[in-house]
Amino acid sequence: MFEGPGSSTRRALPVLTISTLLAACCVVIGGVLGCGGYDGYSMGLAKEGEVSTLTTATQVTDVTGNDAVDPEPLLLAADGSLYFFDAVSRSVVNLATDGTATLFTSQTDLTTVTAMTPALLGPLDQIGAGGALADELICADSISGLIIRIDSAGTPVVHVTEADITAVTGETGAAMRLPRSLTHDGMELDAVMAQDTVSGDILKIDDLGVVTVLVDQNDIATESGLPVEDAVVAEWTRGPDSGSHFGRLDGSNHVIRVQIDGTIDRHVDGTALVDLFSDITDLRLLGVAAHSDDTLFLLVGEVTMGAGIAEVSPDGSEVSVFADSKDFEFLLGASFDVVHIGVFGDGLPYAIDGVSDQVLAFSIFGKPGVFASQEEIETVTGETAPVLSVSTIRGALDEIAFFETKSESFLTVIEID
Description:
8 helices, five-stranded mixed sheet, alpha+beta, single chain
């Protein structure tokens, strides 16, 4: 039930069909009688998946020239391929839709443009469609503090100089973090935003390379509830419908929203999360993911261990429990740690459990089921007790790509009927 602006509640149940009700009853009865509980949701309330190899470690190391692979967060590009920065070779690698690996930007190229050895790139983003720089990659180099832009041929350039930044901020240096495309619906073509951790401001670099302050550091501190010196965004997710960016800051349970014009507000007040998940001691906001209509899913937990998921309506007025610790415990037992969440195209989230190292999907009721089991992953990789890492939705609406660290291979899990 909708309870007005700022309300928080247990997630309201959706409209039920007869078949869904029957399936739900079967699952409940099965759980009570010990006939399988939630696992797999064979009654059709949650997705079940099939695991396969997308790209092997050898396919990647053959193009990087190194003997290991360690990917940073995966970027799903507009063409359906995946990009990632490999922390071992210090290069950018592309995985085509068929899994073929290509060295997109070498360590030598990055070192040349940053004048730093070696470059260490953060999460990648892709400039939105419509402008001259459409589909080019952007990222920040944490060694030099510069924003790097990479064109379609894999050639990197410095997107904006330190001198251009300090001329606006008045600081003696700059260290840019988490650059993101501002382009949305034909607005702000080729514009990029990023936070300068020296000044604390979120800056905008327009299509002509002109730097301006998009959000002042004091406003970030106010909306995040943190001191100015600690108000640093740890993670962004873009709202596909509005083009707004929703930010999570370490040390704060609030979610900030930055609109395209730089308007900032507190989209989610962290006290609502504490109230909703009263069973979690020392609650922390650990992750944020967005659906296409700007609905958010928030991963919360105790210190660093993920234990619940909240759902936030597109306008931020309704915050509710999507899945709590009891839901995960019923499926996984007492030991679990939700380490990552994402959102399928149909609006339901997925999650990775870092204890059992399985991929989880959810029913419309917020009950988790195993989407990619440990046993299936072991069979595909040949590794016992696999360890899962970075992941993203890939291509089809119900397909996930993820990295398994022991085999150093990229896997996919796709929904099966």
